Amino acid sequence: MAEAFVSGDGHRACGICPSRRFPLGAFDVVERPSRECPFNPEDGHRYTPRGVPVCVHPEKVGLPPAPYKTDGVALLGDVALPDDVADLDAYLRELVHGAAPGALELLIDLADREIRRAFPEIDATLALRRAFN
Prior knowledge:
Layout: E1 28-29, E2 39-40, E3 45-47, E4 53-55, H1 58-61, H2 88-98, H3 101-118, H4 124-132
Parallel strand pairs: 1-4
Antiparallel strand pairs: 2-3, 3-4
Helix pairs in contact: 2-4
């Protein structure tokens, strides 16, 4: 069986979230709870009309909303650095601590590239190291 996208305690994903049971690509992520993805009281999960498990808190699981399972959408990371370098450390800390383990490597690579582009005077490696502390 494939490893769950989110594992371990301490992550912001809900305890019943499908990201804690399934790998990325085996569930969808939607913006918020809705009637399109009704709650199933028998198992505590939400599902699409096609029976795909759904996460309804993208900000908690660290993934943008997308039909990962339904349409086979690949994870595309999104890093939008702040305009002011003074806000960089706080942004990176939130980025890495809010990301699900399966997305972390991609986000680090994207952040590294974006930091080097947006703030060439900053040591990207040191900035990312600070974010993990």
